[in-house]
Design brief:
46% helix, 4-stranded mixed sheet, alpha/beta, 17 helices, 7-stranded parallel sheet, globular, 3 domains, Rossmann fold, binds NADPH dihydro-nicotinamide-adenine-dinucleotide phosphate
Length: 385
């Protein structure tokens, strides 16, 4: 029996993780499930899986959570510290699937507790890459990438011969506006932006896919996870989302991982690693897919990718600022306060206005994150829809 904790249990990745765990009740025992404020979904999952603890980050939800858990015997907790405490319970396997920098402290708590951490929460690694990787090393924690691209690279990478790697090529679906003109992009609505053609995901990452900031964040994520330089990381647009990423070797070999676009495949890989487990995912039928297309990304319509690449090259505080400004801008877009094309503009302006020294601790990262959010928030107020 593997003990499991899911941070972000009510979200898209959290639900896919629960689906797999609930199909193999003899293999997994749930310790803690944590979410923000979706009490009903959290309590239902905790009761179904007989979790020991259920945690809501929002303290105002504690009474409702207690009511929803009823006489189940499951302990209800609330508050941001309680989420970190749940992460510290030292499950054998922890899924880090809180969205945004809100997941940073909990993921650090999980890394410091040891065990295996399956990382979906890319924003934490973008903001605090050096700090997080140092914590994983110091506590001998196994960090497994769940993001489908990084999971694909992990599967294709020959860790015994890192010098044989020439390039890592991350594939990008291009999102719903892959072929939309710049002019038409001005009028994109939140409903259009969250409707991803291939993947079913939470709202924030869906918008990130639409702007291609998601691929920018993934470049930074890959830099921290794998032993390569920034200039060995490439992005290619691949509309079908069948090839999840590739590793090119110096002898000219290119290894790719393929599969139907279903997050349960990379999650299952991380759950069973180093073994494999069965999933209910649709089997890949290449004859039905018919063709696999590839194209270079368009830096004019998708400037977020260049912003992220520049932040990666500059290093220091730049990735944390990029990420914080993007979170503020995406939330404002989803609230109808700024237009689609403003998202990258807000990120660019925040990067131009704020340039602190490189962070050397978690507290320093969080301070930069807060300050960058304040700059981006001011910039949002300047936008007129
Ligand atoms: P969702 O928006 O679907 O879910 C987010 C989860 O985080 C919810 O459980 C939410 O709780 C919880 N949450 C939000 N804020 C807090 C907080 N302050 N404290 C505790 N929990 C919180 O997101 P996704 O599942 O789509 O994405 C999660 C992460 O995984 C993101 O970082 C994303 O980039 C990454 N990822 C997602 C993929 C996908 O296919 N969805 C693919 C690859 C990576 P509540 O429901 O109560 O609000």
């Amino acid at each position: 029996m593997k003990t499991v904790t899911i941070l972000g249990a009510t979200g898209s990745v959290g639900s896919s993780t629960l689906d797999l765990i609930e199909r193999a009740p003899d293999q997994f025992q749930v310790l803690a499930l944590a979410a923000n404020r979706d009490v009903d979904k959290l309590a239902a999952a905790a009761i179904r899986t007989r979790a020991k603890v259920a945690v809501v980050a929002d303290p105002d939800c504690l009474d409702r959570l207690r009511d929803a858990l009823g006489s189940s015997g499951i302990e209800a907790r609330a508050g941001a510290d309680a989420v970190c405490d749940a992460a510290r319970m030292r499950a054998d396997w922890t899924m880090a699937a809180i969205v945004g920098t809100a997941g940073l402290k909990p993921v650090m708590a999980a890394l410091e507790a040891g065990g295996t951490v399956a990382l979906a929460n890319k924003e934490s690694l973008v903001s605090a890459g050096e700090v997080m990787m140092a914590a994983a090393r110091a506590h001998a924690t196994t960090l497994l990438p769940v993001d489908s691209e990084h999971n694909a690279v992990f599967q294709c990478l020959d860790r015994t011969a890192p010098r044989g790697v020439r390039r890592i090529i991350l594939t990008a679906s291009g999102g719903p506006f892959r072929e939309t003109s710049l002019e038409a992009m001005r009028a994109i609505t939140p409903a259009q932006a969250v409707a991803h053609p291939n993947w079913s995901m939470g709202a924030k990452i869906s918008v990130d896919s639409a702007t291609m900031m998601n691929k920018g964040l993934e470049l930074i994520e890959a830099f921290h996870l794998f032993p390569v330089r920034a200039d060995q990381l490439d992005v290619i647009v691949h509309a079908q989302s069948v090839v999840h990423s590739m590793v090119e070797y110096i002898d000219g070999s290119v290894l790719a991982q393929l599969g139907s676009p279903d997050m349960r495949t990379p999650i299952a890989f991380a759950l069973a690693w180093p073994e494999r487990m069965e999933t209910p995912c649709e089997q890949l039928d290449l004859a039905r897919v018919g063709r696999l297309d590839f194209a270079a990304p368009d830096p004019v319509r998708f400037p977020a990718l260049t912003l992220a690449r520049d932040a990666l090259s500059a290093g220091g505080a730049r990735p944390a600022i990029l990420n914080a400004a993007n979170e503020v801008a995406v939330a404002a877009f989803l609230d109808g306060r700024v237009g689609f094309l403003e998202i990258a503009a807000i990120v660019a302006d925040t990067l131009a206005r704020y340039d602190p020294a490189a962070p050397d601790s978690l507290d320093a990262v969080l301070a930069i994150d807060a300050e960058a959010r304040a700059y981006a928030g001011e910039r949002v107020k300047d936008c007129v829809l």
